[in-house]
Amino acid sequence: MELNLPESQSRSIRCIVKLGGAAITCKNELEKIHDENLEIVACQLRQAMTEGAAPSKVIGMDWSKRLGSSEISRDVDELGDQDSAEFSKFVVVHGAGSFGHFQASRSGVHKGGLEKPIVKAGFVATRISVTNLNLEIVRALAREGIPTIGMSPFSCGWLTSKRDVASADLSTVAKTIDSGFVPVLHGDAVLDNILGCTILSGDVIIRHLADHLKPEYVVFLTDVLGVYDRPPSEPDAVLLKEIAVGEDGSWEVVNPVLEHTDKRVQTSVAAHDTTGGMETKISEAAMIAKLGIDVYIVKAATTHSQRALNGELRDSVPQDWLGTIIRYSK
């Protein structure tokens, strides 16, 4: 696999954050953003990035008209007297949720076959949808004063081979970070050397970013408290507090001790989800943990997610924290 990075980098990445599609969109309503969750997530990200040292007034960076508004933000007039906020280095990746998945599954983009008119049309439709969502997330974070830059994997040269990442130009991502910006990538429709095209999930993107940027920790923000031993909607579903990953990449549940199972986790995938759902998330998180990087899977827009984003769980995990930690077991 070819990943292009500048030879020397001064970056020290603190955290890569995955905004789960189900957490920031209304997944059963076509192309509808969960505005309340996204607003809280943006606020929590700002708090985590500034480590509590944010200025009293947030100066927004979205100077475009918003839907239903006749004027642009006036924050631009106040920038002259504002001290620059110091942000630790974060990277954000988001899923598609109710954007993109329906278009991709309806046309079969994830299966490849660009020679088919329906697949080519679906490829275009999927990218229109996911890039629209990317813009709205970039704007939401920018309104919180976070200097975000939207970056699409397709446009940045990410290519796959039978759905595995074959090449990715990370030089633009690295330069963006070193210039003081926060890259915001997303799951995308990309070209595939064998299939013609496919869907590259945000979870896979995070694993490759973690492998090469080496963040201190990774946070997956979801619509449930963490990983359960079965779909959380089922009776008696148990929240798994800690999953240990071995040297060979295999993983097992260590907290709580599950006597009624063989330490395997049952997962479900929505019919329109072309990226593998929770099973893919656990698999990719395990590969990140194998690098020696702790992974926290936690419900978005909660006190638990704020603690995870702040990095408070790295030394010790409070008893009242609810979420799933996936870490390497030596």
From TrEMBL:
Its EC number is 2.7.4.26. GO terms for cellular component: cytosol. CDD domains: AAK_FomA-like. The record marks 27 as: Transition state stabilizer. The keyword Transferase applies. It is an enzyme of class 2 (transferase). Keywords: ATP-binding, Isoprene biosynthesis, Kinase, Nucleotide-binding, Transferase. GO terms for biological process: terpenoid biosynthetic process. The keyword Transferase applies. Pfam families: AA_kinase (PF00696). ATP binds at residues 97, 223, 277, 281. Gene3D superfamilies: Acetylglutamate kinase-like. Residues 14-298 form the Aspartate/glutamate/uridylate kinase domain. Belongs to the isopentenyl phosphate kinase family. This is Isopentenyl phosphate kinase. It comes from Thlaspi arvense.
